[in-house]
Amino acid sequence: MDKIVSLAKINKLSGQYKDAKKTIVFTNGCFDIIHAGHVNYLTHAASLGDVLILGLNSDRSVRSIKGEKHPVIGQDHRSIIMAALECIDHVVLFDEPDPEILIQTICPDVLVKGADWPEDQIIGADFVKKNGGHVERVFLEPGISTTRIIERIGELYYGKC
Asked: What domain range includes position 64?
């Protein structure tokens, strides 16, 4: 089974998982330059249930959030990289700036975001809780981020800015 799926396919799969009493975990993000912090975060998210579904921001979505210079890596390549991670069961691209539609389609049991997000600002948190699920905020690796990696590459090749 291909791990990169459409919204329609994840809708069908989510129903099948719920019928089978599987715990669905959902998280989302740009995952532009994958690093150890991402892997640890996603591995932890996967440990919270039976199925981990990743909502991956499309290129258009990333640009709307982070500006025209992003993403560094295009959505097709990011999807392949994320699908290659053993801890991820499905990858679904979404074009919107936030994953609200995707969350409502999947209706996950567990919604996961980084601990840098206050729960009252996590998109979909209210919906998940109203439907019997819960929100998990995961500790992030200190000192590592895509932004920091990009800055470090700039320093190495172009000198301190």
From this structure: 4-158
Instruction: Concatenate the DSSP letters of all residues of the chain into one string.
Output: --SEE-HHHHHHHHHHHHHTTPPEEEEEE---S--HHHHHHHHHHHTTSSEEEEEEE-HHHHHHHH-TT--SS-HHHHHHHHHHSTT-SEEEEE-SSS-HHHHHHH--SEEEEETTS-GGGSTTHHHHHHTT-EEEEEPPPTT--HHHHHHHHHHHHH---
- Say what the pLDDT of residue 124 is: 97
CATH number of domain containing 39: 3.40.50.620
Cβ contact 37:153 at 8 Å? no
Per-10-residue mean pLDDT, the chain, length 161: 93 98 98 94 98 98 92 96 98 96 98 93 97 95 82 83 52
Global confidence as pTM: 0.93
**Quick one: pLDDT at residue 150?**
83
